Automatic annotation (TrEMBL):
Gene Ontology molecular function terms on file: RNA binding; RNA methyltransferase activity
Protein name per its UniProtKB record: rRNA methylase
Organism domain of life: Bacteria
All copies of domain tRNA/rRNA methyltransferase SpoU type, residue ranges: 66-207
Annotated source species: Paramagnetospirillum magneticum (strain ATCC 700264 / AMB-1)
Alphabetical UniProt keywords: Methyltransferase, Transferase
């Protein structure tokens, strides 16, 4: 950590940016949490762009999958999902206008371990209408408990790039969102617990999507 901090200070000095050394106790007091790893940064939040259907056609030409969240309210889950996306190279996250949908925050940034710096977050206003426009360029795949098709059958099918939608853990995807999907997938389990945490589900499905690009 000391070597990394020293290199960071050199880079800051070269860019004529201010920095200050401080004891761990002071960093903890400033952040209000001991979970800072010895470094704090003051930055401007990345802007959240509004979804434009014209952009989706550009993304489709790149052939890359798109992850979509509708009602995932826990910022820690948002951060964990962004971390997984960055690890596997997914670059865009579309979030709905659902009142319970989390946006990037201090908590999600911390949990993402830098992942949110690599992921562009885009908000879709009038979400269901946006999904219908997105269908022109992507195959919309939703997730549900027990009522969907096998993952490999749907995600490995050739054709348009996939826009994969994950919803709230307790309630799942809203009925209107499910109706706007081309396919629904389900992760089969042992039945000993009802479901996985949404971040764990995302990790499995993102890994499956990433395999298509190899």
């Amino acid at each position: 950590m000391k070597d990394a901090a020293a290199e960071m200070c050199k880079a800051m000095a070269a860019a004529h940016k201010p920095y200050r050394m401080a004891p761990t106790e002071e960093l903890t007091k400033i952040l209000g949490s001991p979970l800072h790893g010895g470094i704090l940064a003051v930055t401007r939040p990345k802007p959240i762009r509004v979804f434009d259907p014209a952009d989706a056609h550009v993304w489709a030409k790149e052939g890359r999958p798109l992850l979509v969240l509708d009602g995932v309210g826990n910022p820690h889950n948002l951060g964990a999902i962004a971390r997984t996306m960055a690890f596997f190279g997914l670059e865009r996250l579309l979030i709905s206008d659902h009142p319970g949908q989390a946006s990037p925050s201090e908590a999600s940034l911390r949990v993402s371990e830098g992942g949110l710096e690599w992921v562009e977050v885009i908000r879709a206003q009038k979400f269901v209408a946006a999904l219908k426009r997105l269908r022109d360029s992507h195959r919309i795949v939703g997730t549900a408990l027990g009522s969907g098709k096998p993952v490999a059958e749907v995600l490995n099918r050739p054709g348009k790039p996939i826009a994969l939608i994950l919803g709230n853990e307790e309630d799942g995807l809203p009925t209107a969102t499910l109706a706007a999907c081309d396919d629904i997938v389900t992760l089969p389990g042992s039945g000993r617990v009802q479901s996985l945490n949404v971040a764990a589900t995302a990790a499995i499905l993102i890994h499956e999507l990433a395999k298509q690009r190899r």
